[in-house]
Design a protein that fits this description.
The chain has one domain. The chain contains two helices and five strands; from the N terminus they run ααβββββ. Helices cover about 60% and strands about 15% of the residues. It is rod-shaped and about 110 Å long. The chain is an alpha+beta fold and about 150 residues long.
């Protein structure tokens, strides 16, 4: 019986070591998966940030095109490209844009729209000047003469 007991003890000890090795291996795998999961979450966050940035850029580009189209319409409505006539037309109308109905108050502040962004050419570059949450520069007013 002593020999059988000894074989049983040796077998049990071997199984314990094997189980311990398996547990250690699983712990290593779990740590690796946790690290990969963390990297994947960081990559997802970076992609979501990039997506939101691209949405903002696209929205601004679409608004620029819409503004160009509306500028042409206003020129036609005002019957002129004279600045004072255009200003009068802008201050008295509301124009349908991709961001919703939009107009300007008596001092030229944009009214309406959803997420109105105003850009201005400064030093050869288009920069956001309104609203303050996205403005990269202060509006230049009065604007410098064209060169």
């Amino acid at each position: 019986m002593g020999r059988a007991r000894s074989l049983f003890d040796n077998s049990s000890t071997a199984r314990q070591r094997t189980n311990q090795e398996r547990c250690a291996e699983l712990d290593i795998r779990a740590a690796s998966l946790d690290a990969e999961s963390h990297r994947t979450r960081e990559q997802l966050q970076a992609l979501e940030t990039e997506l939101n940035t691209n949405r903002t850029i696209l929205s601004s580009a679409v608004a620029d095109v819409e503004m160009d189209i509306n500028q042409t319409r206003r020129d036609v409505q005002a019957g002129s490209i004279d600045n004072s006539k255009l200003i009068d037309t802008l201050h008295t109308g509301t124009y349908q844009t991709v961001q919703g109905p939009m107009g300007w108050d008596s001092v030229g502040k944009p009214q309406g729209g959803v997420g109105v962004f105003v850009e201005q050419w400064q030093n050869g570059t288009a920069v956001f000047v309104y609203p303050a949450t996205v403005a990269a520069a202060q509006p230049e007013y009065p604007k410098h003469d064209w060169q």
